Every structure is written in structure tokens, then in C-alpha cells.
Amino acid sequence: MAFEIWSEKWRPQKLSEVINQEHVVERLKAFIQEGSIPNMIFAGPSGTGKTTCAIILAKELFGENWRQNFQETNASVTPETPIMIRENGVIKRTNFEKLAKKYFADNSSDYVKTDSLEILSIDENQRIKFMPVKAISRHKVQKVVRIKYEGGTVRTSLNHSIIVMDEEGNLVSKKASELKKGDLLITFKDILKGKNSKLEFKKFKPSLYNKLKSGYFKNPKINKIFENVNLQPDLSWLFGLYLAEGCFNLKKEGSSGQVIFVLGYPEEAELADETERKIRSVFGLPVRRELGSSGFDRSRKSSIQLRIFNTQLAKFFAENFYDDGEEKTALTKRVPSFVYGDTLENRISFLKGYMGDACGKWGDFVRYSSHSKENLIDIAWLGRISGLDTSCFEGESRIVWKSPSASYLRAEFFPAKVLINFFEKLGKRAGFNWRYYLRHHLYHKKCKRISKKIAEKILKKVKRSKLTKDEIKQLENLLKKIKSPLSFIPIKELEIEEYEGYVYDVSVPGIEMFWGGTTPVLLHNSDMRGIDVVRSRIKDFARTKPINADFKIIFLDESDALTPDAQAALRRVMEMYADVTRFIFSCNYSSRIIPAIQSRAALFRFKPLSENDVRKYVLRIVKGEKLKISEDGIKAIVEIAEGDLRKVANLLQASAALGKKITADTVYEVASRAKPADVREMLELALKGKFEDARKKLQDMLLRQGLSGSDIISSIHKEIYSLDLPEEAKVQLVEKCGEYDFRISEGGNELIQLEALLAQFLLFSKKK
């Protein structure tokens, strides 16, 4: 069964179906009858029908050409989304959370320009390369979709676009909410060129002399000092082995240190011999070799320990092989940044050295394991830029080579439907029986992909003399895609998740795409808030000729987050292309739109929806999906949704996945919200002076149920108004809620802050 997102499935298809916005609907119907619309501002709370009305307008005005004449903006990916960047010439595998810590450090803006930052992308010739990033943006959402594809995962907002191939073989964007299980995403396997890295050992150079009372004396512990050296295969192999089996030890004052390799005994004795030889050859240092005892049986030897006593080396490993700012343990190990940009020979040597944490055979099938999740993602990306077919799963990364045991590579496929459409258009003019070569893909629904080698072989059989210029152009385009590093992988599963926080995007002018995910898939750059994007993408779309229509529509979601400069640039675009383009600005607060735009647009205010409106929508979906829901389940959805119909649909879909009968308990579980009864009981216990009991209730919600501190405070805030307390008391307690919510948002420990808030309730009751 195809996966459908209910917030899209149950989106109204006609203006008459839009709930409780009659004053807006009547005005829009009048515009449809006239066949024209002005520039408009849709202002109001989330989930009240702003986007829905814009889409219905486009469908009514443009018919089957509505998608070509309608551009929707604003979408992003979650902070943990893996990406690869190049900053000041240094390649790093990072994520948006780490970028945000640097670029949004003062927390005062949702849009920042960048310098000397590039992201791994793709150019117009399908070459994998780093492209300049002009800006990073962020905004908050309440829902995301987890996309599990063959070999990896990525999480995006529902309206984020993923790049797919259309039926003509062109790369186009498709909203995440419109994706289905089985759709083919785009990935790559390529060999990025690199240059030999100069490793900075000198910055850890120890002092040659110690200062004593009697003067300076040469430090007797220094056995060797390393200068900066170039990375070479044996050293790269040792680095890979360190990632798998190494650790370091430094005294607190950094006066002495050592590097230790720990291998299995006796099964890895030969590997220990090879490691010792390479250490002596590369570092020119002696190695102390010891046998370690088993933790369960001290009389049994279970490990071989190779120790290098050199403080300079220990400091080098400590700085380069672990997450920045994290505790340096096996859980925080990372592939060093200098490896990604080095030569292919050194990258491969590193991966071979890392076989110390793997099973399998190089050249056939390798499975790496690690306690560090980020490290496994590093390995998957390192393999992809080194021409290897990698995948990333929970607890392991894999490399596969084509062999009898693995007859296909996921990075060597092409969509069969594209070829079938091309040949069906050609018919007999193809000059051969193409149906024979594509018989499996024509008659078996599961055969959606074809080997790129076979696809190229089939296309080269086409008789070009019988083709039109456009057909030859399409043939060349298909061959270009097949010969490129791109390949196509199916979506395995889509899952909507509750989400409270920022999502991020980058602006990549000119190409508007970047690679992201635990293994790379091609994502669409959808940021629309900066002036550069207004001057490029929006302006380009605005000035193009409409398709079978008098004008086009540009719909800017969350337009109140546009920077002032971007809004000013938009005002000029609105004036220049008023004859062919209309703008719809969707926002929560129209006051954040600059006066110059407000004066050029008609304002439509969307009312907050009442509880009765939300109830009707709940019952509509319940009836359509043939669900059963209890009365307390309806009340729970109405309470949590807070008038947002998108949230209603997503809550129902998530709840229905747990069973056909939906109750309040089910709703609170999928929404990760505290049950009002639990919160009320906790507060009453605190007010009665039973602090330990209230604290246990809090710990149950926070630790066992896994609820967030912010959500618990929101629930406390709501329940204060239902407590049997004087108005003055409620005011004072609400003020305390605001204070502790701010503390948590600033990074305070959730458990400590919430317990302190409960203590305020108890102290308040004692005062009264």
C-alpha cells in the first residue's frame, strides 16, 4: 500500500471545504470568477488554511498547468542532517547542528550570510563538486518526515523538496509530503580529487628544556620531536587502525602521554606484527608490546597492547580523531578532516586500516562497526567520495563490491521507467526490439531500476538517423545521466514524527541542490529568505512566461521571516513583473511585512479555529479512514492541536498506526505530551507539601516517558488555571513558569529546573 501523508490526503480540494474561513473564501471565489487576483497577504495561525487556499486558487485558475505556474517556497532539514562542507579549504563531514552553533551563536537572527563556506553539491554537468554557500537559514516546525531509503536515512520538513528524475530524464524537485514508498531518490558514487595533506605535528611540539631552580635542563623524557609531514599510505593505514583500535593517554598537565593500539590475542597476532613494523617505520619510535588479561579470567591473555610513549603524538591524536568539544572516548571518535581531502590512495589506505573494526574481506564485502554513530556516517561518506558503494545502518556501515556474493551495486542503477517512456515515444523508429531488453521492467512492477551498463548498451543501439532534433537531444541527456556518478535508490519507508525545534537550509545560488543524509541523497535548496535568492530564483521564475495563463503565482510561506533586505528586493520584483506574476505572502504576523509590500497587497486574515471546528475535522478523517476514537481521544487531539488542522491529521495518522481504536492515552503517547491528569496530580501533591511524591511523578514523565522539559512546563502552565487557587496565586505561579521555561531554553538542566519549579509550588503553599 502506498504511503500517504494524511495532512496532504485530507487537505481540502475546494474552497467550500475550507473550515470556518467564510469571509476569506467568499473574497477568493470572487477573484476566481474574475479570472484574476491581486498580490495578497494571508495572515493567521498555523494550520488554519493559508497554504490550502493558495493551492486551491492555483488549481482553479490554471487547471492542469497549475504546478508549472505555481511556486511554493520555504522548507528545510533537521539539525542532525549529515552534510559535507569545505571551509577555508578544509573539507569536513558535519551537520547543520554544528554549523548553527557557529553561525547562529548570538541567537539573534534566523538568516546569516557566510564567507568561504562551500557544500558538496552537483553542477549542471552532473559533476560532484563543492559549491559556494551564500547563507544559512532556519525556522521552526512541528512535524518532520523521516525518509528511510536504500542504505540510509534523512529527516526533513514536510514541504522540503527532494531531487528526483522526471519521466523525461530531467532532475526536478518533489515535496517530501508527495513522496511514496518505492519512489527513487538520487545518490552518487564518485572519486573526488584530493591533494596530499601536510599534517601539523609542530603545534604540539614539546619544550626541549625544563626550567628548574638551578637553571634550564634538557627534558630527558623527549625521545623524538616530529616536524610537519605529508600523509602517506602506511601512516594513513595506522590512522585508520587507530580509529578502530586506538586510544591515547595524557596526564592532566599534558607533561607526558602515550598512544595505545589494542588488538585481539591470539587471533590478531599477525596484525599486531604488521602494526608494530609500520609504527617503527613511520614514526621511528620503539614500541612496548604487552599481553593484556581478560576481565573475566585474569589468568587468560586476551589482548595485545602496543604502546608508543610520545606526548606529541598523543596530543595530535587527541585533537584530530574526536568530535570537537566532546569528551574524547570511543563514543565520540571521528574520521579526521584531513583524510577527506587527501589523495585517493591515502583514503583507501585509511579505510583498509580501519578494517580493525570490521568483518569481511576487502574487495568483496566489509561491515564496519563502531560505538560512534557519527563515525559510521563519516565512513559512509568517505567511501562515496572514494568511488566505493557504501551504506549506513544502525550500528554499522558497509562497503560492497560487485561479486558472486553481491551481484549488484546500489550505486549503479538507472530508472527503467525513463527508458520505457523514451522508447515508447520512438516505437519502431528505435530500429530494434527494445521490449526484449526491457521485458522484466515492462511486465514486473518490482523491477523499477536497470543496470546503468545495460541501459547505456540499449541506448547506443538507437538509430539516430530516424530521430528528430529534440529526440536526439533527449537521447544525449539520458546517456549523460547514465555516464555520470549519479544513481537511483528506492524509498523503503516514510514516517511522520512530532518535532519541536529548528530546521535548517543553505542557499546555493545557481544550482539550488546539495547532498545530505546518512548516505548522500540529493536535496533541494529551498531557502527563500535572503536577498541573493530573491534576486536569483524568485526573480527568474517571476519573469518567465506563464503556461496557458495570464500570470503565475509565487507563494512565500513564513514570509514574515524574510530579511528586510529580501523584502525590499521583493517589492522591486513585484513592480517589475506585475503583468505576469502575483505574490501571496503567508505569515503569522502581517506586521512583520514591510509597509511597502503591505501597501501593494490585499490582506486576508485567517481566524483561529474553534474547538468545535477542530472536532468536525477530526470526525471527518475518522470516518474517512474507518477508525474508532473515544471521546477522550477527541478531546486530547483538540487540546494538543490548538486549532492547527495539519497537527490534527498528523496526530490521527500517528495514533492510527498503533491501532484502530484511538484513545487519549494513544494520542498523548504519539504526541509525546504529558497527560493533564498526571500534571494536575503532580501539582496538587506539591501544593499539599508532598514534594518527594511530586518529584517522583515528575521523574516518571521526564525520564521514563521521555517527555521534554518545555512540554512539561507548557502542560503545567495550562493546568494552573484549573487549580482551586485565588487569581493572584495563579498569576504568581504563571510568572514562575515563564522564568523556568526561559532557564531551560537557555540551556539549564531540565530535571533540576523542573524540580526547582515544583519547589516553588510547595513554598508558595506554605506561605499561604
Structural summary, described in words:
This protein has 768 residues and is of the alpha+beta class. The chain folds into six domains: 16-74 and 532-605, P-loop containing nucleotide triphosphate hydrolases (Rossmann fold); 82-189 and 487-526, Endonuclease - Pi-scei, Chain A, domain 1, CATH 2.170.16; 210-357, Endonuclease I-creI (Roll); 410-484, no CATH class; 611-671, Helicase, Ruva Protein, domain 3, CATH 1.10.8.60; 676-767, Zinc Finger, Delta Prime, domain 3, CATH 1.20.272. The protein is built from 27 helices and 34 strands. The strands form eleven sheets. The chain has a five-stranded parallel β-sheet. A hairpin with a 2-residue loop joins strand 8 and strand 9 (152-157). The longest helix is centred in the last third of the chain and has 19 residues, at 727-745. The model has no long low-confidence stretch (mean pLDDT 86).
Provide key terms for this protein.
768 residues, alpha+beta, Rossmann fold, Endonuclease - Pi-scei, Chain A, domain 1, Endonuclease I-creI, 6 domains, 5-stranded parallel β-sheet, 5-stranded antiparallel β-sheet, 27 helices
